[in-house]
Every structure is written in C-alpha cells, then in structure tokens.
Write a structure and sequence with these properties.
Blueprint (H helix, E strand, L loop, with lengths): L23 E8 L8 E4 L2 E4 L1 H12 L7 E8 L3 E8 L20 H20 L12 E5 L2 H13 L25
Antiparallel strand pairs: 1-5, 1-6, 2-3, 4-5
Helix pairs in contact: 1-2
Amino acid sequence: MTCGPTRHHRRSLRLKGYDYSQAGAYFVTICTRGRACLFGEIVEGEMRLNECGQAVAWTWHDLPNHVANAELDAFVVMPNHVHGIIVLTDAPVGAGSEPAPTTMKRHALPEIIRQFKAFSARRINQRRETTGLPLWQRNYYEHVIRNDESLRRIRQYIADNPARWALDRENPAAMAPEPEAAWFT
C-alpha cells in the first residue's frame, strides 16, 4: 500500500502559523484510544480514579518537573479522557527543570503533550502488563485561551465535567450528548 498526501492526509487541528511555544494559556483534551474507559468511574457526580487514573493524574502533575516553562492550571481525569490547562511562561529555559536540559530550547505545547502521553502510557502499560499497547488516541484537542473570561469559563467547564458525565460527548453511554460547549466563545 502506498502512502501519500491524497490517501493518508490527516487535517491538522493546530492553528496554521501559530507558535505553540509562545507564552499563553492552552486548554487541552486528550482521549484514550477508542474512547475506552480506563481511568475509573463517575460516582454521584464525582470522578473516582482507579490505579490507571491515578497514574495519569500523577504524570500530569509531574510535568513542571520536566518542562521549565510550563505551569499547570485546572485539570480533571475523566473515565476516558483528560481536560487540562497548561500555561507556558517566559521563564528562563533550564531554570528549575529536572533533569537538567541538554539544550536551551523552549518546550512547545505539542512536545509537552507528547511527553505526557508517552510517560503516562508507559506507566499504565507497565501496570497492566501491556507493554507497547497504544493508550491514547493519535491526536488531541487544543484551544488557545485568549482572555480572562474564556479562562474562567474553561476552568468552570473542567470543574463541572464529572457532574455532567451523563451528557458528555466523550461518554460512550451518553443517550443525548450535549453539543460542543460554548465555553470557548
């Protein structure tokens, strides 16, 4: 089978020409492969993490130890996806990073997400004894947060997400999923 731009081209979800290493806040949603519910369950409107969900949360919260210019804001692990806000800063690259970086490169959002997906998949696959099995879907959703009102709405959306699981578009059992959220306007 031949591979070419007309046969296997995936439309990029990124903003054309946008520098994803520049300082700013970014909302991301990352889904499991096949929307498999692997991280726990929603009980009475609250997310109850299982061991895999705890590994995902730990990996997320550990990101600033590996990425000097990243700060974390709101975050939630759902049964088959995560929502989070990553804030890229103008902090001097190399300061506070562990282990010490070998280059003076700023980490861009796609690189940070790649690290998160790789590190969390490795931890979960070790626990499940499924080495090398894909955990995450190939891409992720991102939204550049442009103002304080949008940031406030997205934080609220993340906080409310477990209570709204029955209507969540990512919930495979949702009978009438909500249309795309209005938090990004």
